[in-house]
From TrEMBL:
<dbReference type="InterPro" id="IPR017938">
    <property type="entry name" value="Riboflavin_synthase-like_b-brl"/>
</dbReference>
<dbReference type="InterPro" id="IPR017927">
    <property type="entry name" value="FAD-bd_FR_type"/>
</dbReference>
<dbReference type="InterPro" id="IPR001709">
    <property type="entry name" value="Flavoprot_Pyr_Nucl_cyt_Rdtase"/>
</dbReference>
<dbReference type="InterPro" id="IPR036010">
    <property type="entry name" value="2Fe-2S_ferredoxin-like_sf"/>
</dbReference>
<protein>
    <recommendedName>
        <fullName>NAD(P)H-flavin reductase</fullName>
    </recommendedName>
</protein>
<dbReference type="InterPro" id="IPR001041">
    <property type="entry name" value="2Fe-2S_ferredoxin-type"/>
</dbReference>
<feature type="domain" description="FAD-binding FR-type">
    <location>
        <begin position="89"/>
        <end position="185"/>
    </location>
</feature>
<dbReference type="InterPro" id="IPR050415">
    <property type="entry name" value="MRET"/>
</dbReference>
<dbReference type="InterPro" id="IPR012675">
    <property type="entry name" value="Beta-grasp_dom_sf"/>
</dbReference>
<dbReference type="InterPro" id="IPR001433">
    <property type="entry name" value="OxRdtase_FAD/NAD-bd"/>
</dbReference>
<dbReference type="Pfam" id="PF00970">
    <property type="entry name" value="FAD_binding_6"/>
</dbReference>
<dbReference type="InterPro" id="IPR008333">
    <property type="entry name" value="Cbr1-like_FAD-bd_dom"/>
</dbReference>
<feature type="domain" description="2Fe-2S ferredoxin-type">
    <location>
        <begin position="2"/>
        <end position="88"/>
    </location>
</feature>
<dbReference type="InterPro" id="IPR039261">
    <property type="entry name" value="FNR_nucleotide-bd"/>
</dbReference>
<dbReference type="Pfam" id="PF00175">
    <property type="entry name" value="NAD_binding_1"/>
</dbReference>
<dbReference type="Pfam" id="PF00111">
    <property type="entry name" value="Fer2"/>
</dbReference>
Amino acid sequence: MPEIRIGDIAIQAMAGDNLLDTLLAAGQRVPWSCRAGHCQTCLVQTLDGAVPINAVKGLNPEQRESGWVLACQCPVLENMHIKLHDPARDGLGAKLVSTHQATENTLIVRIKPDRPLRFKPGQHMVIWLDEALGRPYSIASLPDEAELTFHLKLHRFGAFSDKIQSLKPEDRIYLGAPGGHFHYDPDWQDKPLLLLAAGTGLAPLQAIARQAFALNHHAPIQLYHWHDKHGCYLEGALRDLAENHPDLTLHLRPGTELAADLTQLRLASRSTLALVCGPPAFVEQVRKPLFMAGLPGRQIIDEAFLSRQT
Ligand SMILES: Cc1cc2nc3c(=O)[nH]c(=O)nc-3n(C[C@H](O)[C@H](O)[C@H](O)COP(=O)(O)OP(=O)(O)OC[C@H]3O[C@@H](n4cnc5c(N)ncnc54)[C@H](O)[C@@H]3O)c2cc1C
Ligand code: FES
């Protein structure tokens, strides 16, 4: 029976038990969000012993070398000695610059990290509002911009959604490491891009479009945004972008038209790449019509905004 040691505490597990479940069942306050190995909210640090490869998927080399694992993806196979994540010690300090309510349920958040961060626009990171409350959000800004920007959908009764609205400029928060596969690749310069977003799934996709132009992308980009009854929260900025970049075509559409719009999707060429982002049900709904329009699965790159209950 393997044992998990955290300081003076010893927790018994059955071989193969999930590490996150075991820690939670033993009363340890381990944060989590997606439970799918995607968001890095459930990091714990192993101080000795081997770790299963699945538990470090998506972590950067420094995180791996320091023994970090994703607890939600880690089976307990042998005795483990671990340390719980503390955002104030293990994360990057930052201050809240501003929050702006763009629509009734969309908040634009600007954050200034204590030191510059390396990231690719469209990647995501965990924002920690205190030692236990962290959620993953996609980076909507470019690296040369003064602040990090995020677009948050506000969820009724959402713990993060509630607390962020009570914070003031200059309040201290903490950031996890940027990561994830969802970003512009300079090898795509000649490929038409089809960017498909619902809700705040627009955050990474507008950043990817802006990064593409910054890197001299020279094939057409079509950006679809399906929005709720409050409209596209970024319409002005997107129209300005399209005015400066004739290769960009905008389709700002009510969400009620999504199913009909998907039947009309046409690919500019067989080398088109589709990037899809938004709630999990949206990402799922879009895959099949793209495939039917002739796009192989490997040319569809997606990011589903998994939450604690999806
Ligand atoms: C890689 C990644 C990147 C993400 N990027 C963004 C982003 O840029 N912008 C953004 O707005 N969100 C993003 N999300 C989703 C975001 O992390 C969650 O929606 C967030 O956890 C909500 O936190 P909360 O504390 O307000 O709600 P919670 O307290 O976690 O949940 C409260 C209630 O709200 C419901 N809820 C929460 N989130 C959702 C959701 N997405 N859809 C439907 N119901 C939900 C829950 O089911 C629950 O009933 C991302 C998720 C992932 C995995
Ligand atoms: S990666 Fe483990 S909860 Fe998201």
